[in-house]
Write a structure and sequence with these properties.
Keywords: Signal. This protein is α/β, with parallel strands linked by helices. The protein has 6 helices and 6 strands; from the N terminus they run H-E-H-E-H-E-H-E-H-E-E-H. It has one domain (21-159): Glutaredoxin, CATH 3.40.30. The radius of gyration is 17 Å and the shape is globular.
């Protein structure tokens, strides 16, 4: 019986790992690529780390929120390293975020360059969340944000989205 449970657990973990094969390396130029992918669209960019105490709370909230609001464009960037990929993938799967199209992990020797590319005033503290509207004007929050704030922001950007008549 115990052996059977272990086999099932391994299959679940292996399935979760393969589900997050979309984890992309965040390198110089990736920020411009993200902004281009979401040109004219609002999105939330969440920076997190495996060692962050508060990040699991936000990842859990974002996973539930994304499930309830599939229209939310969500970008997740782990500030860890590609060597942490198995653990990153496991975390994302655990919060229902492995299917997010825009999952990234820092992948350069000098993370300071990547932080500077994202935000010249950011020194690496996480969790850090960027709320980009349609014009890519951004609102920055460090620390816990919470579902109520995300709902309010999503309502505001939805009200400012022009109707396409579709």
């Amino acid at each position: 019986m115990m052996r059977r449970l272990l086999c099932i657990l391994l299959l679940v973990v292996a399935g979760a790992a393969s589900a997050a094969d979309n984890l992309r390396p965040f390198v110089s130029g990736s920020m411009a690529q993200i902004q281009e992918e979401y040109a004219g669209k609002p999105f939330v960019m969440f920076l997190w780390s495996l060692t962050c105490t508060y990040c699991p709370t936000e990842l859990e909230m974002l996973g539930k929120f994304k499930w309830q609001h599939p229209e939310l464009n969500l970008v997740l960037i782990a500030t860890d390293t590609p060597e942490d990929r198995p653990e990153i993938v496991s975390h994302l799967a655990g919060y229902g975020l492995s299917e997010i199209e825009s999952n990234w992990v820092f992948a350069e020797d000098m993370p300071e360059r990547l932080r500077f590319e994202i935000d010249r005033r950011w020194y690496g503290e996480v969790p850090r969340t960027y709320f980009y509207d349609q014009a890519h004007e951004r609102l920055v929050k460090t620390g816990l944000v919470g579902e109520a704030f995300v709902k309010k922001w999503l309502t505001l950007v939805s009200m400012n989205t022009p109707s396409t008549g579709k």
